[in-house]
Amino acid sequence: MLIEARAAGETTIEGERLAGGVMIAAALLSVLAMGHHPSGAHATGGIGDYVHGAMIVLISALFFCFAKFAQRRGIARPLILAGLVAYAISLAAHIGAATINGAIVPALAASGHDALGHDIALLCWEANQALARMGVYATGTAFACWSADLILRGGTANRILGVAGLLAGVGPMIAIGGGLASMDLAGAMAIYAVHGLWAALIGIQFIRRAL
């Protein structure tokens, strides 16, 4: 029994080290990918396809890591579970936004006829923006739930991490809602950098705890 318990503990530690490392890498790479996101007439096709594909992979990896974080914090507790549900909504919204710009629009543009007229292009743009904003709100809600839990049920380091998470989550929500920022390339880059920074801090904490 003791050997089995020790083996289970070692497996948990290895899993948390992996989650921490993946979270840090995915957070940094997502910001790097956004830095290579083309703009204007070159936003779709070519490198844009690879950027959107990479973003889908990276945000899926982050969801995996945050699921491990929720498991570690106690997924049965309301704030933790609510945060995971909100982040799942964020994942779906961001995949939808990336699919529109990374797959649907290029396919229409390459169809060989005037399939991508003004109205269709406008519809695709508005759908992309609506999903991107939904992703920001959902991510902010998830960060707020998890940060509240860290503040209420944690030591000094976790409380500091919780305050940083509230700023990283609620700040972009207020900026988008108040018209101070938009989900154009510059705005999205800034918001995802803030989100990525907090995710990286969670990853560091994961590794520190595992070690």
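^ that was protein a. below is b, sequence first then the tokens
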Amino acid sequence: MRATFRYCYCRLVVALLVSGVPLVLAFVPTGGASTAYGADKTVDVRRVNDGDTITLTDGRLVRYIGVDTPEIDYKKRRAEPLAYEARDFNRRLLHGGKVRLEFDSQTRDRYGRTLAYVFLPDGTFVNAEILRQGYGFFLPTGKNRRYRKVLLASQREAMSAGRGIWRNWREVGKGYIGNRRSMRLHLKSCPRAAGISRSNRVYFKTSWDAFWKGYAPARGCMKPNRHK
């Protein structure tokens, strides 16, 4: 039966090629997660909350996987540098109001937000574009790894070009310790750094070197050095 199918399929392909009919080959990703969660479905955006979060018309709050943009002001917390520029850039990207979502192993964070890779109808990878323009840090997570290389490469492009947060970069401390397991970066003087096991410790002279390798600032221990 399989042999017959292959024979018929081959004859069909040859016939199409001979007749001049364009032949389109579709490659289906082997990961399975994107198709399992209906990644091809287009959804509508109600609001752009900030540089890495949007609200859909169905009420879902979507957090971009692998991206950490500066925080806007909230209650008594002052906005971080470039926070509103990041939000405005996100708004410009999503001006059409329609996006396609892809999911990975972890689909929700501890706040109940939907975690997703976001694409525009024209194929633009929103998560990567925000990093490529320097509006945020690459934020690696343990389970969601599908586009890790793409996202890190986008950050490196922004670093090399000195865009956004990477413009006029200066170090905030002397000596840094990274956690190889969580991929978070701590100031060497931070008490939390002492709790990192020796097997997971990685030492860096500069935070720039750590960010180039994909580490992200540990909140509560190292305040990111973001510049206008």
